[in-house]
Structure formats: C-alpha cells, structure tokens
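Appendix B, Record 12. Input sequence as logged:
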Amino acid sequence: MTRRLHLAAAVAAFALAASACSSGQAAGDGDVDLPDPVVDTEVTTPIDYVAMGDSFSAGPFIGTMRSDPQGCARSKDNYPAFVADWLDVASYTDVTCSAATTRDLYEPMVMFDGNTTGPQIEALSEDTDLVTLGMGGNDFGIYDSLIQCQRGPAAVCPVERLRADAGKVAGRVEQAVRRITKAAPDAEVLVVGYPDILPTEGTCKAVGVPAAVLAPVADVAGLLNASLRRGARAAGASYVDMAAVSDGHDVCAKGRAWVNGPKLRIGVAAPFHPKVNGMRAVASEVFREVTGEDPEEITEYAEPDPDVIVLNEG
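Logged structural output:
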C-alpha cells in the first residue's frame, strides 16, 4: 500500500485460551485472569480525493454530463467517479475539464461554451489525501495534431516537431506535481497515463489510413506517455501506466475496444476518447496503485455517495 492511503489496518487481536463462566470462575485450573476478547476491526482512513485532468479524465459524452460547470463536458461515469465510489472516499472533488492543458492548472480556463472556470489547483487544500492528474496531451497542441496526422497523408504530419513537443511535457508535469504537492503536502499524487488509442501495429477500417501513416502517430503517443512517466517520477509522484494494460483494447479492437472510433456518439464517447469500459479500466489501475489490491467489485456505473461530492462553481 502507499505511504498515506492505507485503506484498512487490522487492530491486533489476542487469542483466547479459554472462556470464563458466568460466575467469573476460569474454566481451567486455578484462578487465572484471562484477557477480554478483542474483536478484529477495520480502521479506515477517510480520503479527501481531488481529480485533475483533461478530456481523457473528464470523459466527454459518456452517459450523463455534470453541470458544474457544463462547459467542461465532465461525465458522471469518468474514472475519477469510479475511484471515488470504490474507495468510499470522505470527499470527492472533480475539476477535470475537456481540452485542459497543464497551464489550466494554474490559470482560469475558457471552456467549450465560452464561459470561464477557475484554475484546477484551487481545488486542493492541506486536507487533500489523494490527487489524480491526467493531462499533457493538449499541451503544444499534441493531441489535435495527432488526430490530424491520422486523418491526412504522412507528408503533412510534423512528426519531428511532435516528438520534440512530447518530450517537453515531462518538465510541465514535473512542475505540476511539485505545485500540487506544495498545495496539498500530505497528498498521494498519481499521474495517469493515456491508454492506447490506435493500434501499435497494423490498421483497421475504424482508423481509415494505412499502417505506414499510423506508425509515426503511435510513436509520438508512446513518447508522450514516457514523458508523463518521467515528469511524475522526477517530482516524486506515482505513474499509472495505462499503455501497459490497454494493449489489444485500442479503437481497432471492436467489442474489446476501450476507446470510441472517429464518430461522435452522444452517450458513448467523443471521437477517439475512452468509453465507459475504458474509464472502468483506468479506475481499476488507480485503485490497485492506491491500495495494492484489486477492487472488490467492478461496478457497471459509478455511484459515489452524493453526500461526499463537492460541487464546483460555474
């Protein structure tokens, strides 16, 4: 288990050698004072959880969208909601926002609807115990460029620039984690990587381009995740490696796919974004990182206690 979030600690118990009768006499020979029975109990640490990130954490168009604020396109069934549910947290604050960059951790962000939401880092406090951070792909326009590369000929894909930009994300993530740690000094910080969106080998109809075009895109995606890992470790955070577990669940995996294809599907997911099964998969990895154990139950939908949800302004 992690240093801060030991979810359960067993209280030491003493075995009874015998039991006393109703008169108080020992069942064995002689007058022996026997210890009172000690019942094993579970001591839990209430977790104040804050989720930060971009659309791969927010979950645009998965099921029902939250309205606090509406412009972030934040799902009630994103992976932070599953994590909050399965960990039975004391408080749950989700400030993930679609299209966010690391800059939006510290500055107000203009959302899809033209309204503004505050810096994500303002959700943290000295009481925060757990932070998940899933972002970096929107920095330098990396994600949008990758989608354009996937749609167009290889000749127009600025692969070398994208590789360089992916490498720069490590410094931004390191800075983000250090600032998060300063605002929430006792928190366990987990940087969550991106799952495989496109196949690492071959192609399919859902992608619509030859494997030769796809290969540089997959290469940059791998460099981006490597950058997230590097930045997390440099600042002392844990890294949740989704690429390692999402192999075979990319957009070409049909019924096993954790990500949506190129079409917007209201209620399912945004194009090339995780579906609800993908969110459950991320939540499972986060849960394992926090507790060292598998979730007792993988629920179909996220149902954190309404009383623990902290609603955001906007």
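The beta strands are 9-10, 42-43, 48-53, 91-94, 109-110, 116-117, 130-134, 188-192, 238-240, 309-310.
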